[in-house]
Fold this sequence. Notes:
The protein contains no helices and eleven strands. The chain is an all-beta fold. The strands form two sheets. Strands 2, 4, 5, 6, 9, 10 and 11 form a seven-stranded mixed beta sheet that branches. A four-stranded antiparallel beta sheet has the order 1-3-8-7, with no helix packed on it. Strand 5 (about 45-50) and strand 6 (about 60) form a beta hairpin. It is globular, with a radius of gyration of 13 Å.
Amino acid sequence: xxxxxxxxxxxxxxxxxxxxxxxxxxxxxxxxxxxxxxxxxxxxxxxxxxxxxxxxxxxxxxxxxxxxxxxxxxxxxxxxxxxxxxxxxxxxxxxxxxxxxxxxxxxxxxxx
Length: 112
């Protein structure tokens, strides 16, 4: 069965950086586009970024464009999200996503 396990969250200062990882198993990772989404406290789910199966194209929400970079390593079955210039409004639980499949999420808190 599909398993998605996020890691790399934590506490960062405004302007800081974090790198999230999502280890995927149970399916042919290299055949599927993948996404990151987030849910801030008291808010709905927000799509953040997506990447084609071969990494050839990437997409970003306007709120993170120019600050976040999505990437993948198909040899390692791993999806990444490099987050730079973090803002307090980036505070959320971050999830990797494949269709109806979601990981458990990793908490990102941006605060001084």
